[in-house]
Specification:
elongated; 2 domains; mainly alpha; 59% helix; two-stranded antiparallel sheet
Length: 306
Amino acid sequence: MVVLILGLMLAAGGVESGKGALPRAESTPLLSGPTVHEAEAAPSLVRFGADGRLLALDDREEILAIDLLGLSEEEREPLDRLIRLRLADLMSGGLKRIPLILELQEATASGEAAKIDDVLMRYARNRPIWGNKVALVEVVANALPERVRGEYRRLVNEYQDAWVAMKARETMKGREELLADLEREKQIADIRRPTEARLEEARSRFEAISKRLDLTTEQEGKLRTPLQEYATNTNYRPTGRDGLKLLSDMFGVLTWEQRAEMAKYLREQRTGERFRPLRDAPKGTGVAAGVPILMLAARRKRRPIP
């Protein structure tokens, strides 16, 4: 607590080194107490902007707090594995995720918590790791060495307390309701962050293909139609036969030279294996014939999350 108070005073400019201090005596007075050295500031996820508002984090506080614990590589390995498994579970489902992602965008835009919670509940239904009923802070804490569990919980609680304090000034909601709002925001961000990263990767990949094949504007437009139909006409559950039809439709748009280059590109995507369309046709992976579907099926306009 003393360290926290000192930190707040320093941040507010209440204590400035060397200003207003009494002259230092040549010798220590006989009745003086022990010298108190200023404690080093404790690690923290709490940061405030110039406007005094709490700065948002790039990820969940339960995950970012791990980086502040000074773990060895050996201690960190099970945590990294847990994070990778959680992300893989979150992103599982391929194209089948898209309808729920679109629903989540609409629910978020409406601002209605009940609608958002309904979509999040359905999204978590077949994702036992991401949708674990046990709070993530407890899952992570149990995977940590016992010596740092207390510090880990302190870091997480400190950030949550700061977030609740900021929101409490803007609403009449109680602490538990505000923590539920925070968890809802984090779940939305869990889905949004990797999806946006995948979209950006998809756009870059499509641009690279377009440049490599030297596609005309007209060809790009004609390619978008079968790509969209591949996702929507199959209710986001394409089969191998759907993938084969997509390849045929796409090759029909290309010139002979572009087809040869496209076939070469497809072979490169399957290093060491011969590309066989029927076997290798995508089945809901989010990429059809090496061309991203998600960027075409999902809305391009990014909505800010309240």
